[in-house]
Amino acid sequence: MDECPRCGGAIEELSLGDVSTVTCSRCGYADVPVEHLPAGEEPESWRDAFNRFYKE
Amino acid sequence: MAKGLDVGTMNILSAQQDGNDTVFVQQRNSFVEIEYSDMAEQMLSRSEVLHIRKDDKVYVVGDDALNFANIFNKETRRPMKHGILSNDEQSAIPMMKLIIEQVVGEPAYPDEKLYFSSPADPIDSDLSTLYHQKTIESFLDDMGYDSEPINEGMSVIYSELADNNFTGLGISFGAGMTNVCLSYYAVPVMKFSVARGGDWVDEQAARATGTPVDKVTSIKEDDFELDFTTDVGGVEGALSIYYENLLDYVIENIVTEVDEEDVEEGLDVPVVVTGGTSSPSGFEALFKDHLEDANIPFSISGVTHANEPLYSVARGGLVAARSDEDIDHDEADEEAEAAAANE
Ligand SMILES: Nc1ncnc2c1ncn2[C@@H]1O[C@H](COP(=O)(O)OP(=O)(O)OP(=O)(O)O)[C@@H](O)[C@H]1O
Ligand SMILES: [Mg+2]
Ligand SMILES: [Zn+2]
To answer: Where do Acidic residues bias regions lie (chain B) (predicted)?
Structure first.
């Protein structure tokens, strides 16, 4: 990625030790999504369902 | 497994359990920009200084930033201010993301539980903590954690008041803020923050004495002590005056914020103080003295000072995260190993 998908500006890559990140100095794009879904009940995983079954 | 993370204005720390020990990883939430030409290459490589190179500039990050700032006569830059992401630091988001990832590491398994500290909205400024909280949560979820914010004061109670059924008043004297939380059987009944802490003390003392603020911070963290009487003059003199003022300010706000209805009749409330700003020797005694003098609307059973004031918040997050794990992953791992061995 060298062009910002949000504003078309130049993307910079920064790294610190073993970790790295991208940033757009024009619009602040950081390639991290923000969740806006309602928190709600999470669907039960199969594993939890089996555990529940064996406990009962 | 599960992890706790303290996202602080000055220090970012993670906590995780390793057998009977809690392991902490800490990094100073600060950096300094230095011209590459001014910097001897060996200064960077030999001492394993954490840094980012960008064109002809070097950003020294974390614990070394303060030393480099003092050596090169530069000011440190801070991704956070008053407990939340700073609105006047352009690089706040990438810097925070890098430091957090460096401190917390990858999740041990997908959706590992992680509780990160988040301040209460301050009562003395109109800052909102929501943008900050959502941004940090997004970083962590993007890394593969199942993250959850925990109020900073509540985290102190998880860390320090387990033996008292998570009941009491927790106060975290940080850098950008002071967070206060009153909890009754692990349920927060009152919480607030004030946008003053160690940074405020440093800024005031720097202004009063015409000293660079990074210099003041170094003096304060090195060998500064609090006492009931001190001499006027110098950075130490100014620090004592503003320290006392901060204590009074926090206590005053506790008096106005806590309603008598918040506290069960006849309950003696233990108070625990922590946070980097509570570190100087003499702090606990001075705080006790000023608290006794105030008109607190409930009865206090005692004041304690956390053993490791810089670690309380991260440890509390870990305690909360561990108690919220749906399945015991250690057990699950052992089962998987046993199954593999049988094949
Ligand atoms: N030995 C010491 N003596 C005095 N002050 C200290 C000492 N060590 C750290 N501090 C101060 O403590 C503060 C940092 O404490 P802490 O790490 O608890 O804050 P934080 O969690 O980063 O900030 P906040 O909770 O406000 O977001 C800074 O102001 C720092 O200068
Ligand atoms: Mg803190
Ligand atoms: Zn952009």
So the answer is: 325-337
